[in-house]
Design goal:
It is a single chain. With 202 residues, the chain is of the alpha/beta class. Helices cover 30% and strands 26% of the residues. It has five helices and eight strands; from the N terminus they run βαββαβαββββαα. An eight-stranded mixed sheet has the order 7-6-5-4-2-3-1-8. β6 and β7 form a beta hairpin. α1 crosses α4. The longest helix is centred in the N-terminal third of the chain and has 16 residues. The radius of gyration is 15 Å and the shape is globular.
Length: 202
C-alpha cells in the first residue's frame, strides 16, 4: 500500500508563518485544510489558526476545531492536519495537547499530519515545518524519512520552493502578520475573519 505524500500550498504556509510571527513568544496552534486523491497524495491548501493562549484541550479549542471542520466542509476540503509553534524558538517538540488534537483529527482523516514550526528557520529560505507522523492514535513522532522532509524526492514538499522566502518578505516588508487573526482574537473582536484571513494574503 502506498504511503501518503503531502504538498503545502503557499497560502497554507503563509498563514502558519504569520501566526507564529504575530505571537513570537507564545505557543500558537491551528489546523490544516486540504484534499486527498486516490493515490493518497494530500494537498494542504489552507490553514485555520485556533489559539495563542492554549495550555490544554480547552472548550475554546474544541469549539474552534468544530468551527474549522465545518468551514473545511463548506469549502469542499477536510481538516487534514494540525500545526503548532512553541514558546521557545529552539523547541520543535509536539506538545501533549497537540498530540491529542492531532489524534482527534486522525480519527476523521486516517492520513492526518502534524507540523511543528522550527523557529530557528523562520526568516530563512528553508521550510520551517517539522513533520510529525502518528505511530498510534495517541503517539506522534518526527518523521525519519530519507530523503529529509522538503528535500528533492521527499514525501513532504512545498508547492512553490520560494514560499519560505516570500513569507519572510511579506512579514518584513508588508507586516501582513499584524492583519492576521486567530480564534482567540475573534473571541475578543467578532469582526476578525479568523476562518479565512483574506486581509492578510498578498
Amino acid at each position: 500500500m502506498s504511503t501518503p505524500s503531502y504538498t503545502i500550498a503557499p497560502e497554507a504556509y503563509y498563514k502558519v508563518y504569520f501566526h507564529a510571527a504575530k505571537h513570537p513568544h507564545l505557543p500558537v496552534n491551528g489546523v490544516l485544510l486540504g484534499t486527498q486523491d486516490s493515490s493518497r497524495n494530500v494537498s494542504i491548501q489552507d490553514a485555520v489558526p485556533l489559539l495563542h493562549h492554549w495550555t490544554s484541550l480547552s472548550p475554546m479549542m474544541e469549539i474552534g476545531l468544530d468551527l474549522a471542520t465545518q468551514h473545511a466542509g463548506s469549502s469542499d476540503m477536510k481538516v487534514v492536519g494540525y500545526y503548532q509553534a512553541c514558546e521557545r524558538v529552539d523547541d520543535t517538540s509536539l506538545a501533549p495537547v497537540g498530540e491529542k488534537v492531532a489524534g482527534k483529527i486522525k480519527a476523521g482523516f486516517e492520513d492526518a499530519i502534524a507540523f511543528v514550526v522550527d523557529g530557528q528557520k523562520l526568516g530563512t529560505s528553508e521550510s520551517a515545518l517539522v513533520p510529525y507522523v502518528s505511530t498510534s492514535p495517541s503517539s506522534w513522532k518526527p518523521t525519519s524519512t530519507n530523503p529529509a522532509p522538503f528535500s528533492p524526492g521527499s514525501k513532504f514538499q512545498l508547492e512553490a520552493l520560494e514560499t519560505p522566502s516570500e513569507a519572510a518578505k511579506l512579514v518584513r516588508e508588508q507586516n501582513l502578520h499584524f492583519a492576521f487573526g486567530d480564534f482567540d482574537d475573534h473571541l475578543e473582536d467578532v469582526t476578525i475573519d479568523w476562518l479565512r484571513n483574506r486581509s492578510c494574503l498578498p
